[in-house]
Every structure is written in structure tokens, then in C-alpha cells.
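Quick one, C-alpha cells below:
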């Protein structure tokens, strides 16, 4: 892992903090990084004057452009605020979409009631140089009488196989008409012109990662935070993101399987049969939420296929990168950022590598397999930082060597960046 590069530095007096990084690679191999710039306001008006900034890299994360404002104004308008940036790339048209949450009346305590919360969608046809945005809140709601809806930071996915090929899928938080929190997938089948929502997954969630697995299933990984711990659940969709099966509690590494617990459940419902099937396949069973051991690693909000364009049936198609965060043994506030690799769609761990990088609060990951690299965008105590990881160092050299690029060109770049000699 290279030394981290600080792209957005928190103010020394904590007047401004940078949060919620989202990173993506465009169809022309440019990197886009978005994050929230939030003034440290009164707790009753947390989003007042917050904006969404964007930086671009055209040399695979080595250098970055100066930040520009995509949502909000360079001179912040305290009456509104923006949060939770998230990307989706349409590999068919080349368009890049940047979703964010808008808070109107953000300088008034009543805004916390979520009555003036909107989901906006900006799109760019020139690798993020220019953007146009619109409000898609009504489309997300559809016939549902949801009280509010909010985006989640990170990036969504465009499906690459099956009858839903080309569908774009992103996770959004909603508040139902009864006031219950839930997560839904927001999907588009016409390259971002119109959007519709799937069935809600009930539960309090801080965010979600959505990934298409090699067999066409969609996995939605949701961290659920309490005052004591973070419990991550995984939900699986077999209909292109329209609905999801029962949630399975994801234990901290190494992944374990309790088949007796799963097989002992009643098998007279589709949900129970699916739970037992996934448990026998090596995935974790459902059941009561259990807190992880003190100091154990926990899953972050990020999940990424290491070879996103691999054809189903290839070994590379089943490789998933899952970042983890865990306290250091010294007991300080610092955390180790771990990169967990699975070569069978997340069923079991192939290798885990940890890096001590200070106080990390959030992370998003993008894989560059043709260069044998992955780029990590992190929210730390210092601000927004990025770092490069060589896929060789996490056990994937044999998979990535010569992947969509001549091995000699890969080695040349990795030598220039100090990964190999």
C-alpha cells in the first residue's frame, strides 16, 4: 500500500470537515472522487451550507485535479445542504451519474424532520468536466407514501448479465409512511432517464453496498449501527434488485458457517429454504444478531468486484474485495484498514491483508485490474485521503497478470510506483 495522499484537509479549528468519499472509474479509465464538505454547525442544523466536491485523476490515482463544486455553491448557501454522494457509470453510453441528497431549509431545526429532503441526480457526458442535475425524488417514491428518502455514499452497479443486463442499481434510505427506516434499491432500465424503486428492506442502516455476483445474483451489504457495535447483514436478490431475500448476519473474518443452526430451521417457506441453501454453500446463516468480539475486524460499507468486467464462468468473475476496519492492538483510536479477498463470491476468505492508516471512518474502493491496482478513498481524522494497493500484495497476481493489458506495461507502472523491483 502506498503512503496516503491527503486531498482535502479538515480545518485545524474543525470549522470544516470532509466526509463520505465515493470513487469510481469511468469508461475511459478516468477516476472521479466525490465527497461532502460540511461546515461544523450546530447539531440541530448539521447540513447547513454543506456541498459536494469533485476531483478527477487521469493517471490512475497518482495526481488529482483541484476540487470543484458539483452540488451547492462555492460560497455556501446556509439555507440548503448536500450529502451522501454516490456514483454509477453507464458503460453503454459512457455517462457518469452522481446521486446526492439535498436538504432544503437546512439552516432551520425543522429540517431534521426530513420534510424537505430530496434525492438529486447529476449526469456528465465528459468524464466529470460538466454536470447537469435534476430531482428524482418523485420517481423514487412512485406509489409509495414514504415520508422521506436519502442517498447513500459510495457507488452503485450496472448489471452485466442475464435478462436485466444494462440495469443500473443503487441503494437509497427511506422512511416509510409509518415512520420505519428501510433500505431500497433504486433502478433504471433506460440509461438513467427514469427510475423506480424495489421492495424495501426494513431496518436501521447507515448505508449499503450493492454488487452483482458472478451468477447474476445481487448482494446488498448493509451495516446496521447501534451504540454498542456495528452488525452487517447481507441480502440477496434473484430478480435484478427488485426484491431481496432474508438478511444473513455477516460475521467478522474469518467467515464461519453454522450449518446445524441453519438446517434446524423450518424449511416450509421460501425464505427458510434460501437461508439453508446459502448456509450449505458456505454463506452465513441468519439468526439473532450477535455482537462481534471486542477488537474484532468489522466489514466496512464498501464492496467491490476485483474484475468487474470478467465474463461469468471465469475465475476472475468470482473475486470480491471487502474492506474491513478494526481497532489496533494498542487500544488507541487508530484503526487498521483491511483488504479481505474472496475468490468465491464472498462465501469464504482467500486472503486478508491489513494496513495501519490511522483513524478511518469510511472507505470506498475501486479496482483497476488491468493495472493490477485498487484505489481506496478514505474518510480519516485528517480529511479525505487516497491510497493505492497492488493486487499482487493481496494474493491476486496470478489472476491479474496480463489482464486486459500487456504484462510488461503492468510491471512498468508498478515499478514506477514502487510496488515491484
Amino acid at each position: 500500500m502506498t503512503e496516503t495522499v491527503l486531498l482535502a484537509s479538515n480545518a485545524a479549528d474543525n470549522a470544516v470537515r470532509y466526509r463520505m468519499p465515493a470513487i469510481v472509474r469511468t469508461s475511459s479509465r478516468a477516476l472521479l472522487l466525490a465527497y461532502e464538505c460540511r461546515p461544523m454547525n450546530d447539531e440541530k442544523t448539521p447540513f447547513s451550507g454543506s456541498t459536494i466536491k469533485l476531483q478527477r485523476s487521469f493517471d490512475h490515482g497518482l495526481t488529482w485535479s483541484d476540487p470543484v463544486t458539483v452540488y451547492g455553491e462555492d460560497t455556501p448557501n446556509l439555507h440548503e445542504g448536500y450529502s451522501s454522494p454516490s456514483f454509477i457509470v453507464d458503460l453503454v453510453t459512457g455517462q457518469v451519474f452522481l446521486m446526492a441528497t439535498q436538504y432544503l431549509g437546512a439552516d432551520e431545526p425543522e429540517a431534521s424532520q426530513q420534510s424537505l429532503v430530496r434525492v438529486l441526480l447529476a449526469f456528465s457526458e465528459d468524464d466529470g468536466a460538466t454536470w447537469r442535475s435534476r430531482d428524482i425524488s418523485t420517481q423514487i417514491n412512485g406509489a409509495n407514501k414514504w415520508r422521506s428518502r436519502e442517498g447513500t455514499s459510495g457507488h452503485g452497479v450496472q448489471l452485466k448479465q442475464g435478462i436485466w443486463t444494462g440495469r443500473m442499481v443503487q441503494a437509497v434510505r427511506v422512511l416509510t409512511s409509518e415512520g420505519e427506516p428501510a433500505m431500497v434499491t433504486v433502478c433504471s432500465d433506460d440509461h438513467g432517464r427514469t427510475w423506480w424503486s424495489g421492495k424495501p428492506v426494513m431496518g436501521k442502516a447507515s448505508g449499503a453496498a450493492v454488487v452483482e455476483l458472478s451468477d447474476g445474483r445481487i448482494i446488498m451489504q448493509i451495516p446496521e449501527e447501534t451504540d454498542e457495535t456495528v452488525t452487517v447483514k447481507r441480502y440477496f436478490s434473484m430478480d435484478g434488485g427488485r426484491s431481496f431475500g432474508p438478511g444473513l448476519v455477516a460475521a467478522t473474518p474469518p467467515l464461519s458457517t453454522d450449518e446445524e443452526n441453519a438446517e434446524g430451521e423450518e424449511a416450509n417457506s421460501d425464505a427458510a429454504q434460501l437461508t439453508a441453501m446459502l448456509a450449505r454453500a458456505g454463506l452465513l446463516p441468519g439468526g439473532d444478531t450477535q455482537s462481534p468480539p471486542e477488537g474484532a475486524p468489522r466489514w466496512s460499507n464498501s464492496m467491490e468486484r476485483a474484475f468487474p468486467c470478467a465474463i461469468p464462468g471465469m475465475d476472475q468473475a468470482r473475486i470480491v474485495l471487502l474492506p474491513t476496519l478494526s481497532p489496533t492492538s494498542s487500544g488507541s483510536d487508530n484503526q487498521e484498514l483491511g483488504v479481505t479477498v474472496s475468490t468465491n463470491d464472498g462465501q469464504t476468505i482467500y486472503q486478508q491483508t491489513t494496513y495501519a492508516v490511522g483513524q478511518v471512518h469510511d472507505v470506498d474502493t475501486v479496482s483497476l485490474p488491468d493495472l493490477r491496482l485498487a484505489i481506496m478513498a478514505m474518510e480519516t481524522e485528517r480529511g479525505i485521503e487516497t491510497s493505492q494497493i497492488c493486487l499482487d500484495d493481496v494474493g491476486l497476481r496470478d489472476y491479474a497478470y496480463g489482464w486486459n493489458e500487456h504484462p510488461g506495461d503492468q510491471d512498468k507502472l508498478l515499478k514506477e510506483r514502487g510496488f515491484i523491483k
